[in-house]
Structures are given as C-alpha cells and as structure tokens.
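Kindly inspect this chain:
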Amino acid sequence: MIKIDEVLTRGVQLIFPDKKGLADLMTKKKIKLYQGFDPSMPSLHLGNFVGLMKLRQFQKLGHQVIFLIGDFTGMIGDPTDKLATRKKLTREQVLENAKSWKKQASMVLDFAGPNPAKMMFNSEWSDKINFKDLIEITSNFTVQQMIERDMFQERLKKNEPIYLHEFLYPVAQAQDCVAMDVDLEIGGSDQVFNMLAGRTLMKATKGKEKYVLATKLLVDKEGEKVGKTTGNALFLDSTPKDFFAGIMSFPDEVIYLGFELLTEVSLEGIEEKVKKHPMEMKKQLAYEVVKILWGEKDAIDSQDSFENTFQERKPTFDIKVSSGETLAETIAPFTQRQSISNAKELIKQNAVDVNGKSSLDPSLKVKSGDKIKVGSRTFLIAK
C-alpha cells in the first residue's frame, strides 16, 4: 500500500509552503487536488504522464482527483519558458485536440471506480468572467511579479514584444484553483510561478492555504526534456511497441529518474542496478511503463518486438497502411504533429526509408507491399 510520505517524496522537486503541513492535512481529511492540462495538441505526451502518475498516487490514497482540461487557458497559451509569443488557438481547435484526452488519461487514472477521478473544463468558470471581475482578480498581482520572469527578461533584452494576454495566463490558472476550491495543485517544476499565483489568489479571496507540489522534470544532463524531441516524442495514443522503443532511446543518465517518475516499482537498489546493467534496466523501465498504460501482455509483446527488431536487427513491418497515397500522406499520421508538413520535414531529413532505401521524394506513390520505416521505430507495410 502506497504511503503519504512516499507520495510526497517520490519524484517531488518541492512542496509549498511545506511538506509536513500537507501531510498533516492528508491525514485529517480527503483533500481535493488537481493538475491542469492545456490541449495544445491532440495527444497527451510523456511529460503529461509524469503528472498523471502523481495524481494516480493520490487517488490510490483515497483523495479527490481532478483532471482539468484547460480549454480556456489553452486558447491563451502558457508563456512559460517561451522566448516568443505562442500562437493563440481557437476554441474549436482546443476542443478538437481534447476529444480523446479522457480516454488517454484513463490509461492511468480511474474515472469509474469507488473513488473516481473527475474531468473538468476551465471554460466552465472562465467564460463567465466579465471585465469588472477581471479587474478585481488582477488587482492581487503586480506588473513587477510578471515581468521578472526569465523568458520575459530575455525578450526585453532583445526588444521583442510581450503581449498583455501572456501576463494573464498565470492569473487565469490561479482562478482555476479558486473556482474549484482545491487544497492542492500539482504540476511540473517549470510551472511553479503559475502555481504560486494560485496560492496568492486563494489567500486573497478565500483566506485559504492552497498547497503546491512540483514534480521533477524528466530531463537529460543538458536540461532538455526527454521524450519530446521531433521524431522521438512519446504520446499516450501511440502503440505499445512504439512507446517501448521510445523509452529504449532514453540516454542512460535518465533511467533512474524514469523509474522514479514513470513507474510504481520500489526504488530500492535500482540506482546500483542501473550503473551495472543499464541496457537491462532500460528494458525493465520500458516494460513497467507499457504495463501501466496497456497491460502486461502488451508489455511482453513490446519487449519481444524490440529485441527482435533492434537487437537482432529483424524489423517487423506490422503496421498496415493503404497504398495509392503519396509517401508524405501515408506517414503523416505517424509523425509528431500528425501533419503532412511534419512528414515532409522527416523525409527531407533522411528519416524515412522505403524498401530499405532512403527516400527524399514526399510525392512518391506508395505501392502495395512497400515497407516504410519512419524514424527509428515505426515500421509500416502498404496493402
């Protein structure tokens, strides 16, 4: 049985205002907590999975978990770590992206059991805010608080624009906490500023202590997020075999962190085993993650497929696609952005092989029997 101390320690970067206060609250009552996810793309990715795993731990302890879809904040675009203004999305684009998110999240969270997770949309309250409300809410924050953020300072140095709606993103996220009256907000350590804005607003409007738990980020030694690079991004609506192979592409230095953030196995002795047998431990990591998402049978099959395909160099072209379309059209659904433009980029980068030969022609007509390799781990067969 998972324990409070483990939940508040494993994969946790920091807790505001303090770990002991949150632990005491969790022993006294069933707390209400959430993490928000902005649907900027149709698929939940590996970074989202880290947050879902932390929500899952709280759910197993019997607490009330909210999976919040930021259909309102998603139209603004979180400026965190962005050195240029994000493109604004329409409500239609955001809702289209979010269509399958509950199905993907249910691979990790339980939406139907005795303590079901709840899915909410922040447009439910944010759409109703009028200009008078906005003035009242924003009076709890200062321009100095917003402008001191690193990415805004970088833009100021380069004389690049900072738009007012970007200042309002953390304010809108803060309003989520107040509207749902939560005890705790969870997010990655890159979200601390936004989450602390929620603490500020909760204290000002309700006189309530809202806790913040920031999880560690799955990053390599250069600080780059793992599993989010072009051509190697890992999404929860991909296949188990692709996900397994994707984890096997992790650099060795993140294997232990992967166990900490992405699995439920005991961490005792893991660090020493990773040092001695990194390849075997990476396989175990991939196996454990796939087992959580798709079940033990798919985990076994995915490991077998990986060993046959990559270690014995016998690729299995087992994803069937239709013939008759262009190469770019055929591989587009299997690219990071699921777009023809993304497909053309990969073809231009020599990342696509047809029948064992690299192809640079996106307009090539795919014939029945063609074997197409996309990147290092996607194998298609045309019918």
In short: The CA atoms of residues 71 and 94 lie 6 Å apart. The chain has a mean pLDDT of 89.
